[in-house]
Design brief:
This protein has 319 residues and is an alpha/beta fold. The chain has ten helices and 13 strands. The structure holds nicotinamide-adenine-dinucleotide (NAD) and uridine-5'-diphosphate. Uridine-5'-diphosphate binds next to helix 5 and strand 8.
């Protein structure tokens, strides 16, 4: 039986990855310090004999008593509101946390996949973004704490590969949505859906002409799984190239949810990228991967999930 460590296990992506790897017959150690995650995302796994939880901050020395075949490093705040609230922790988890996990992978002779992001392209001057593009990131801007932590993560991962011959994989994840996102984490999908469900106006930042390309969780998990199992070392974009403006997206959510609320406009946050669309040629060629779930279908599923939350959870405001 393969043994797999997943950091960030109580978060959105990490919890879905735990489900997938258990379904693939792995023994999964889920590690998390619960800073942005929630036990309830993995509550259903506590009775599973192939799962164990380790409550640990990965910026501190990481140790597992038993052998490991695979490590997936997904621990990190991921929403702009979260990483602006805990900027130092964000830098530490991308740098010190990654260093600790690479060290662990070396000790265990395990293959490691690290969760990078489309944010390494910053406010991109190349469109769509392919993996050859070096990006346009402000190191000193507010989002730099996340973007630069992830860029450092990529550098140190490649150094461990080149210098120590470690088996490494780097996924560049584009905006992904699905069940178990925190309703109030400030990301646009839960933000708009929460507003629609609470009967509030939808807040579009800027004039809404900025674009994003949204990937459904099942497609993302499939891409990550294929990349880990491949022998490809360079970064790979995993995302859905179906691009939309945020204004059109708000209109889509209004239609889907049937709310009679309207769109209101708020200032665009500093350094908010104006466009983002993955070039997935590499993922298609190397992994035979491409997204299958259309946005309308994925959004319907995630709306059902948010509708099923208690009214207490729905009203909870963090920001
Ligand atoms: P999330 O906030 O739901 O999950 C992150 C998890 O990491 C949380 O459970 C949190 O408690 C945990 N964590 C944070 N710091 C930690 C630490 N020091 N030690 C242990 N655990 C810690 O976010 P997510 O959307 O699931 O993102 C997961 C990963 O994927 C992140 O690395 C993120 O940068 C990356 N990513 C996500 C997206 C996306 O669209 N969801 C896009 C690009 C990259
Ligand atoms: N956004 C918005 N209203 C909100 C939340 C986000 O208009 O209530 C915008 C945000 O400015 C950005 C886009 O939606 O242009 C995606 O934001 P998100 O935080 O989900 O992801 P990221 O900016 O990291 O891609």
């Amino acid at each position: 039986m393969k043994r797999t460590l997943i950091t960030g296990a109580a978060g959105f992506l990490g919890s879905h990855l735990c489900d997938r790897f258990i379904a693939e017959g792995h023994y999964v150690v889920g590690m998390d310090n619960l800073i942005t995650g929630d036990f309830k995302n993995i509550g259903h796994l506590f009775e599973n004999e192939n799962f164990e939880f380790s409550h640990h901050d990965v910026t501190k020395f990481v140790h597992t008593p038993s052998d490991l075949d695979y490590i997936l490093h997904f621990a990190s705040p991921a929403s702009p509101i979260d990483y602006l609230k805990i900027p130092i922790q964000t830098l530490k988890v991308g740098s010190l946390g990654t260093l600790n996990l690479l060290g662990l992978a070396k000790e265990k002779n395990a293959r490691i996949l690290v969760a990078s992001t489309s944010e390494v392209y910053g406010n991109p001057l190349v469109h769509p973004q392919n993996e050859e593009y070096y990006g346009n990131v402000s190191p000193i801007g507010p989002r730099g704490v996340y973007d630069e932590a992830k860029r450092f993560m990529e550098s140190i991962t490649m150094a461990y590969h080149r210098h120590h011959g470690l088996e490494t994989r780097i996924v560049r994840i584009f905006n992904t949505y699905g069940s178990r996102m925190r309703l109030n984490d400030g990301r646009v999908v839960p933000a708009f859906m929460g507003q629609a469900l609470r009967g509030e106006d939808l807040t579009v930042f800027g004039d809404g002409s900025q674009t994003r390309s949204f990937t459904y969780i099942d497609d993302q998990v499939e891409g990550i799984f294929r990349l880990l199992m491949s022998d490809y070392v360079e970064p790979v974009n995993i995302g859905n190239p179906d691009e939309t403006t945020i204004k059109e997206f708000a209109e889509e959510i209004i239609k889907l949810t049937g709310t009679d609320q309207k769109i209101i406009y708020k200032p665009l946050p500093q350094d908010d990228p104006l466009q983002r669309q993955p070039d997935i040629t590499r993922a298609k060629e190397i992994l035979g991967w491409q997204p299958k779930v259309h946005r309308s279908e994925g959004l319907k599923k995630v709306f059902e999930y948010f509708k099923s939350l208690s009214s207490e959870e729905l009203q909870k405001k963090e920001h």
